[in-house]
Amino acid sequence: MEEKDKRECPKLISRKAIEINGERHIERYSLPERLAHFAHLTALFILLVTGFKIYMGWDFMTYHSALYIHMMFAIVFMVANWIVIPYNIVTTECPHCEICEAGGIRGYLHRASHILRRYIFGPVDAKRIKQIMLNYLGKAPYPAYTVYDVKNRGYIDKLHPVTKFLLFFEGIGVALVFISGIPLYHQQWALLGLPIAEWILMIGDIVGPYFNLGTLAFMRTVHLLMAYFFIIEVTIHVGIIELDPKIWKYHKAIFWTGKGDLCDLNYVDLVNVEKDKVLHVEKEIAE
Hints:
By secondary structure, the chain is mostly helical. It has helices at residues 2-8, 15-19, 31-56, 63-90, 98-102, 104-119, 123-136, 161-185, 196-207, 215-242, 249-257, 281-286, and strands at 12-14, 25-27, 146-149, 154-157, 259-261, 268-271, 278-280.
């Protein structure tokens, strides 16, 4: 195994990083994260198919069957996006640094900073996107966007920068498709006695005329635009991987194994590596 590691890891690496839990393949996505991703993707695909059937009148199923399936998976989509995914974000595994382990307000704030860095697009991600563009022009190496803290045993970053950029817009899309879908389903829909649908229709009464649309026509247009947005978003999201076949393994990680390879130094940057544990593999191979 060590000889294999030497051949596959041509940079400075930490033996500790490879030997955590007796292996170099560390959990990248937990089971709840993988289930939420699968539920989100499956529900989105079915919602798009049944939604366009309802809108365009395709003949492969009846209107009532399409509406029933559409509403059932709308619930799955909302539960995945508004309950399961936020839960996974809040409870995500962070590096076990001393501040976080100490607890208290400072510890919680420090943990929150870890989570924000992992999921919110920032200056570092912008630099990585620039480097990715240069890579496609053959003028720069592909950036290592997975950052693993060896000493504190945790991922600092593990999302592709373009994915992080899209998360904000995806969140808005999920909210708009839900809000616009309620009055299209039932104009008197209420929750715990609150007339949610009526409130949404009141907003439509105000905004719709600016676009020369009636209230329901405006809601239908927003709903349809969000469908096209998700088609574009998924195309970009998947295209990130398809344009670089070396990271197809992340498909396997998010759908099946959940494991990431710390020795894949084309895309992994190891930080807080103990100096006495560092190996210069190229030198060892040369010797």
